């Protein structure tokens, strides 16, 4: 029993990154403006992610008997994003991000005490196209999660140890010309490749992230953010533990988001907290994300 539970705990540990939640897909890194097209400029972005889970659920959503389970993740990711206009109302974006993270998993019964720290995997978005209309935005892009982080097979690692190709499509609706009241949605499909030095391939997933928000006072925005995840193909590989062979993950999350624009500093701050719900075959907990985006070079008046 202890061995099977340890396999489930370790295989379900999230590994954060700059653009999307890693490992068994931790979501919530983007919120209300997930499908919005930003104005042109060079941005320096920083995200602090804090994740805590104390429940592990099986494929039926029932809680597994792990006493005093604690899964704790603290990660900070810094990146750059460059957007330029390439045609009338058409924009090109490229981005790069790298995380530094600490992950700890502890339990009283079965006794588990493992942790890992270090640099995570590089997140590279070589192309994202966007169309910024008066009331609507449309975005589509490709992102690669490159396994540059530290990784050891059969041990808890900050790095994932495998490539992921992600295709995304989304958009936003703005209820007013000032773009202060909006709703956005971003749908992504992840294709996970084989892990390095071990014959395991995690199943592919579909994720939905987004939310609704409005300007509430001066430079302050507030709204409700949410996400959903479904694993759509089975885990594969000769080294895959039987406990997770046909277990497909599922999770939903929802929570408040607050944002503020500091115009004199050309910076936007965001704070978001989301609770996971309806979980299957993974951990269930809370995620808190603090983000800061600094407009280093402006090619168009920011909104």
Helix and strand layout, with pairings?
Blueprint: H1 2-12, E1 41-57, E2 70-87, E3 90-107, E4 112-119, E5 122-132, E6 136-146, E7 164-174, E8 182-192, E9 205-217, E10 220-231, E11 250-262, E12 267-280, E13 282-298
Antiparallel strand pairs: 1-2, 1-13, 2-3, 3-4, 3-5, 5-6, 6-7, 7-8, 8-9, 9-10, 10-11, 11-12, 12-13
Structure description:
This protein is mainly β and 303 residues long. The longest helix has 11 residues, at 2-12. The protein has one helix at 2-12, and strands spanning 41-57, 70-87, 90-107, 112-119, 122-132, 136-146, 164-174, 182-192, 205-217, 220-231, 250-262, 267-280, 282-298. It has one domain (2-298): Beta Barrel (Porin), CATH 2.40.160. The protein has a twelve-stranded antiparallel β-barrel with strand order 1-2-3-5-6-7-8-9-10-11-12-13. Helices cover 4% and strands 57% of the residues.
What tags apply to this protein structure?
single chain; 303 residues; mainly beta; Porin; twelve-stranded antiparallel β-barrel; 1 helix; 13 strands; 57% strand; globular
């Amino acid at each position: 029993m202890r061995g099977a539970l340890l396999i489930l705990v370790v295989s379900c540990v999230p590994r954060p990154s700059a653009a999307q939640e890693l490992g068994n897909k931790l979501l919530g890194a983007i919120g209300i403006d997930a499908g919005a097209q930003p104005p042109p400029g060079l941005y320096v972005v920083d995200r602090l992610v804090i994740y805590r889970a104390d429940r592990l659920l099986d494929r039926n959503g029932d809680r597994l008997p792990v006493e005093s389970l604690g899964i704790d993740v603290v990660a900070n990711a810094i990146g750059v994003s460059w957007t330029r206009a390439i045609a009338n109302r058409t924009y090109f974006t490229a981005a790069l991000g790298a995380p530094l993270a600490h992950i700890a998993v502890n339990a009283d019964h079965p006794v588990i005490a493992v942790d890992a720290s270090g640099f995570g995997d590089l997140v590279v978005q070589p192309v994202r196209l966007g169309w910024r209309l008066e009331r609507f935005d449309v975005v589509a892009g490709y992102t690669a999660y490159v396994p540059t982080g530290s990784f050891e097979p059969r041990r808890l690692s900050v790095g994932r140890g495998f490539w992921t190709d992600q295709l995304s499509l989304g958009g936003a609706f703005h209820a007013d010309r000032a773009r202060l009241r909006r709703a956005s949605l971003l749908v992504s499909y992840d294709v996970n490749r084989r892990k390095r030095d071990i014959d395991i391939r995690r199943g592919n997933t579909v994720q939905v992230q987004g939310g609704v928000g409005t300007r509430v006072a001066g430079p302050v925005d507030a709204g409700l953010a949410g996400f959903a995840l479904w694993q759509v193909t089975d885990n594969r590989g000769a080294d895959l533990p039987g406990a997770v062979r046909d277990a497909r993950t599922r999770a939903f999350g929802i929570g408040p988001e607050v944002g503020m624009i500091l115009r004199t500093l050309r910076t936007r701050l965001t704070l978001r907290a989301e609770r996971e719900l309806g979980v299957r075959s993974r951990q269930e907990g809370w995620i808190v994300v603090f983000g800061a985006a600094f407009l280093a070079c402006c090619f168009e008046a920011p909104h």
